[in-house]
Amino acid sequence: MTEEEPRRLFAPWRFHYVSQEAAGEGCIFCAAVGGGRETLTLFTGQRVFALLNRYPYTSGHAMVAPIAHVAEFGLLDPDTLLETMVVAQRVARALHVVYHPHGMNLGWNLGEAAGAGIVDHLHMHIVPRWRGDTSFMTAVGGVRVIPEELEQTWSKLRAALEDDGVEKDG
Ligand SMILES: [Zn+2]
């Protein structure tokens, strides 16, 4: 990481995390399917589920992933792709209600070269952004400044999703 590439989402702490988790401990996404507060799972649908990122770039950083352990974006079937976007939209709505972000990044990091921390299980990131937010500084400094506990974030977003009509099933 150099200062010449400040816009790349880069999080040094994730390497530690990944090296721990990837050492045969199993897939954290698969383990979070159908979960709740403990796994920070916000919602589990038919084909996809949503969860909070344990190492968020900003408060409310969520992810939507297929329930199936799939690494290849090209292998996702149309129904799963559609449900991914529908659930991403719900999560984005909940984030707007709870956090009023100025903007949001939605995207996939496909492959290690693209910044994916976990390459074996596809997932889409939903990152609330604020003008002048600190995610770049925290990434460069390797120190996360997340002003809110993850469980609080989970509770608020979960409540917002339920208010929005998402069934309570996790
Ligand atoms: Zn998996």
Fill in the keyword field for this structure:
HIT family, subunit A, 5-stranded antiparallel beta sheet, alpha+beta, binds zinc ion, 5 strands, 170 residues, disordered N terminus, 15% strand, 34% helix
CATH architecture: 2-Layer Sandwich
Strand content: 15-25%
Total of DSSP H or I helical runs spanning 4+ residues: 5
Task: Based on Cα principal axes, name the global outline.
Answer: globular
Count structural domains.
1
Mean pLDDT: 81
Number of strands: 5
CATH class: Alpha Beta
CATH topology: HIT family, subunit A
Main sheet attributes: strand count, strand direction, barrel closure: 5 strands, antiparallel
Oligomer: single chain
Ligands, ions, cofactors: zinc ion
| Low-pLDDT stretches | 1-24, 136-143
CATH superfamily: HIT-like
